[in-house]
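Saturday, quiet lab. Running sequence design on the structure tokens for the scaffold JK sent over.
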């Protein structure tokens, strides 16, 4: 068995399938002391620099799961992968990974039994693991705790992320700078989403900043018509707020950044248990594994991303950043049809859709309106400024004087049984006007569709008060696990005192399942 192991490893070494790795050299351009790579983290940061820039999708680094700076070599299937699709490449990598893992397990069993290294490769394994302390239990742990891991390179994907970042970083940096935050924090999306606004994680995190839905609702609009987690600008504002709050609670940026993956409460707990707020000491303590793999490596990956971006021309020769987005923001002050806006601004729906990632498909299809308060993005190249758009789409209140001859309008949601003719008759407008106002090609309307009713205010006032200005309804909210009054008030844009008043509450206590009246 020993002879077979030596033969397998020698084949890996000779063929380049399992070869020793040279580490990346340090590049330090940080001005904020929290973003200078601590000596303890340098080997771990170098590991991620290599993952990002040196190795591609047909290569895998074989390493220690808890200490990736302990590297056993690489598996390179580039030659064998030529002409294969992604699925077949993944199968090939899995087969090679299993073979190498079995060979290493055999080596660790022998070392755990007191055996000595038999060649230079085995000696390098022993030397790298020496800092874990004396004895042979560390070798047995490699098997018992499944500590042999392979990490695929992402050079191709990372190059695209760097290219794409040019589109967003200038705007993002301005947002962080305006809020007094280090602009280095805008590099976090490199390790969160690769600057892909379409990114969705398996657990439901969305957008460039990968906000979970529940967290996102604390910092931006997340509903069935608009999900601002997918809007790079609005999500950046939310991320700036989150990081600012995390920093104020945790006291330094390494911990605040780690909380982006592990939560403020979780990081605070680990700091108390470790007895130190120095993240490098917490991460590299060989006697205590404070976090799982993702959280342990989150800040080192961030530091690697800073270095790579600062020197991207060296890591990716010839790569050019995409030109920055140049946008004008128009505030929507009342529920409004995107088709109306498109005509009003003389900007195509396609151009609007290309920069308003947060807006749902049903809004673009005309089945819902943009909500009040939404910040519409418009390409500056269209010549539009916020002053170009005067939105008149709102329900006319009955208090408006009948002598007014100003044109306004309302948004009508099509109900079951409605026809274009019945809607036109109700609002005293012609079918032709309705079709022209809403850019309709036929007389067919669907339930739930939003129609702009352009009309003279005087004619609107003769409608019943209930139809023209429905009375506000009191909403309810069912208390969920983990809720408190402050969170509920923030989520719904209400005041804690008002919620307590309408519910006759004297204390802040809540129970799961409780139904609250919301003013």
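Result came back. Writing it out in full:
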């Amino acid at each position: 068995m020993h002879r077979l192991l030596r033969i397998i490893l020698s084949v890996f070494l000779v063929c380049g399938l399992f070869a020793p790795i040279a580490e990346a050299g340090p590049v330090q351009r940080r001005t904020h002391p929290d973003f200078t790579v601590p000596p303890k983290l340098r080997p771990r940061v170098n590991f991620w620099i290599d993952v990002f820039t040196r190795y591609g999708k047909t290569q895998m680094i074989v390493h220690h799961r808890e200490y990736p700076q302990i590297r056993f070599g690489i598996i390179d299937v580039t030659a064998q992968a030529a002409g294969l699709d992604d699925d077949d490449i993944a199968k090939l990598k899995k087969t090679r990974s299993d073979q190498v893992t079995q060979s290493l397990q055999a080596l660790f069993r022998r070392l755990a039994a007191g055996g000595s290294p038999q060649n230079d490769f085995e000696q390098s394994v022993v030397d790298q693991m020496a800092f874990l302390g004396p004895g042979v239990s560390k070798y047995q742990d490699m098997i018992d705790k499944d500590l042999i891991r392979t990490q695929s390179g992402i050079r191709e994907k990372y190059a695209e992320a760097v290219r794409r970042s040019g589109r967003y970083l200038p705007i993002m940096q301005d947002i962080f700078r305006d809020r007094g935050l280090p602009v280095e924090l805008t590099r976090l999306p490199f390790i969160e989403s690769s600057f892909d606004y379409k990114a969705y994680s398996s657990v439901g995190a969305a957008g460039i900043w990968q906000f979970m839905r529940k967290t996102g609702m604390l910092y931006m609009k997340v509903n069935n018509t608009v999900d601002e987690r997918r809007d790079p600008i609005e999500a950046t504002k939310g991320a700036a707020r989150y990081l600012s709050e995390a920093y104020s609670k945790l006291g330094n940026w390494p911990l605040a950044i780690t909380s982006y993956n592990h939560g403020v409460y979780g990081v605070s707990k680990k700091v108390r248990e470790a007895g130190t707020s120095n993240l490098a000491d917490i991460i590299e303590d060989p006697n205590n594994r404070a976090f799982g793999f993702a959280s342990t490596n989150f800040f080192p990956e961030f530091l690697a991303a800073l270095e790579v971006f600062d020197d991207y021309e060296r890591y990716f020769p010839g790569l050019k950043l995409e030109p920055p987005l140049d946008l004008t923001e128009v505030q929507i002050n009342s529920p409004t049809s995107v088709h109306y806006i498109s005509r009003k601004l003389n900007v195509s729906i396609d151009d609007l859709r290309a920069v308003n990632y947060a807006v749902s498909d049903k809004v673009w299809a005309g089945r819902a309106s943009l909500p009040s308060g939404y910040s519409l993005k418009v390409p500056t190249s269209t010549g539009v400024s916020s002053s170009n758009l005067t939105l008149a789409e709102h329900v006319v209140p009955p208090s408006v004087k009948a002598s007014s001859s100003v044109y306004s309008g309302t948004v009508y949601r099509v109900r079951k049984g409605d026809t274009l003719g019945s809607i036109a008759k109700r609002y005293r407008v012609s079918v032709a006007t309705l079709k022209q106002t809403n850019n309709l090609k036929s007389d067919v309307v669907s339930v739930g569709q939003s129609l702009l009713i352009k009309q003279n205010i005087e004619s609107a006032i003769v409608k019943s008060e209930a139809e023209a200005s429905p009375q506000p309804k009191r909403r309810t909210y069912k208390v969920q696990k983990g809720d408190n009054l402050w969170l509920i008030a923030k989520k719904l844009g209400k005041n804690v005192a008002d919620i307590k008043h309408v519910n006759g509450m004297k204390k802040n206590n809540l129970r799961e399942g409780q139904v609250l009246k919301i003013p």
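Notes for JK: The longest strand covers residues 407-413. The longest helix spans residues 86-112. Ask whether to fix the surface positions before the next round.
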